[in-house]
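Suppose you are handed a protein chain with no further information: no name, no annotation, nothing but its sequence. What can you learn? This example shows the usual starting point.
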Amino acid sequence: MTDTEKLGEVIAMFEASGLQTMDLELEGLKVRLKKKQGPAFSADSASRPEDTDMGKEEDTDPALQTVKSPLVGIFYASRKEGGEPIVSVGDPVKQGQTLCLVEAMKTMNEIPSPCSGTVEKILAENGHMAEFDQPLFLIRENRHD
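A reasonable first move is to predict its three-dimensional structure. Written in structure tokens, the prediction is:
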């Protein structure tokens, strides 16, 4: 089992549990998971000054889900250099579908969509560093009220 698969299992167990936050430290990697009020999870850390506008739209529109980076690494929009992006603005996505890759410790980590919906915005830049808890995408959740 790869490290990515192990991390995915830990995240799935956390989401299914009654826990609201969880800290994990393994071989020098520290991860903090914190559940939101909705079905998505996010990592908990101090906000960065340049991110102050990124969550405001979500606060005013409950149908928007912010997908945040669960770890520090390089954000990749495509699976290979120069390739087509995994998702683009306006694309429909399903819950659990891979949105991007974040490379950390020479491992490519797939970042899944927390819900089914439509990609509203891509907030990260291909090939640039993604910080822990940095907003990467806004997904307009499909609501069947």
